[in-house]
Amino acid sequence: MSPILVLAEKEFRDGLRNKWVAGATLLLAALAFALTFLGSSPAGLVEAKPLAVTVVSISSLTIFLIPLIALLIGYDAIVGESERGCLLLMLTYPVSRGQIMLGKFLGHATILTVATLVGYGAAGLAAAMTGNADAESWRAFSALLGSSVLLGLAFLALAYLASVLVAERSTAAGLAVGLWLIFVIVYDLALMGLLVASKGGVGADVFPALLLLNPADAYRLFNLTAFENVRQISGMGGLAASAHFSPTILLTALLGWIVIPLATAIAVFQRREA
Question: Which of 104, 122, 172, 232 could form a disulfide with 33 if both were Cys (CB 3.0 to 4.6 A apart)?
């Protein structure tokens, strides 16, 4: 078996024994289940499909929770092994540093994917129980599941990059929290401040492009603008019209946020002392 798959299997098994991972999965399931039943309640005068409302609600939830879970899973992937002395032991085996990085990432990615699909699968189960969802809403929900996995992998790649840039787990943990604050909270506040300070002077072409520099914003744009029924509820129609980003471009941006940080982390790890 490939060393990458061996390492991935080890990380996945360790993750299955981790009570924290199980707790995160249950938390996602409970919140998604609750949001689905809330979304199935009457929506006043707005003719909205309950599952479409659920997609909007879970999208907002995902932007806060999934990145945090991914960062906490991966921040000590390398630096933690180094502090425990396990990294030196692994390097004595016929396995390259790139294979170590890819194997560990694949294992953690599988854990995160399973947690996301199982957790949010509860929302699909609740929607099926209510029996009030059209085909387009199901397509939007399926896209939500896939893009939520991509968002998690993007932040997992950032966590790996943080893990190879520092020498102590505590520093990596602080950097992971800082990344979460920057991308999830500070970045959008900074963009709003830029718009206010420039009195709307930021060009219509510049502002949407700035959104692609944040994986959380690319995720938000994809899920809230890709489908008409969701776009009507989310109130993102105006931004969707000005951004001119197709779903393919937004998904490509998310993939870029996985590949570039991970490739950078591998390059740094190649030159790092164990």
Answer: 122
**Per-residue pLDDT tens over the stretch 40-78:** 554 543 556 677 788 888 898 899 999 999 999 999 999
Picking from 29, 51, 27, the residue whose alpha carbon sits closest to that of residue 38 is 51
**What pLDDT score was predicted for residue 45?**
39
Residue with tokens 């500070």: 186
What is the span of the domain harbouring residue 238?
Answer: 3-271
Alpha helical stretches, state H, the chain: 3-16, 19-39, 50-74, 79-84, 86-91, 97-130, 135-165, 169-180, 187-197, 206-211, 215-225, 228-234, 237-243, 247-271
Q: The tokens of 43 are what?
A: 């929506």
pTM: 0.91
Query: What are 224-246's pLDDT values in tens digits?
Result: 888 877 777 766 655 555 566 78
| Beta carbons within 8 Å of 102's beta carbon, 6+ residues apart | 4, 7, 266
Contact 71, 158 (CB under 8 A): yes
d(CA 76, CA 87) in angstroms, rounded, equals 12
In the structure, what pLDDT confidence band is assigned to residue 119 with cuts at 50, 70 and 90?
A: confident
CA angle at 99 for the pair 98 and 104, rounded to the nearest 5°: 105
CB distance 51 to 137 below 8 Å: yes
SS3 label, residue 105: helix
| Domain tally, the chain | 1
Mean pLDDT, to the nearest integer, of 101-123? 92
- CA–CA distance, 46 with 124 (Å, rounded to integer): 22
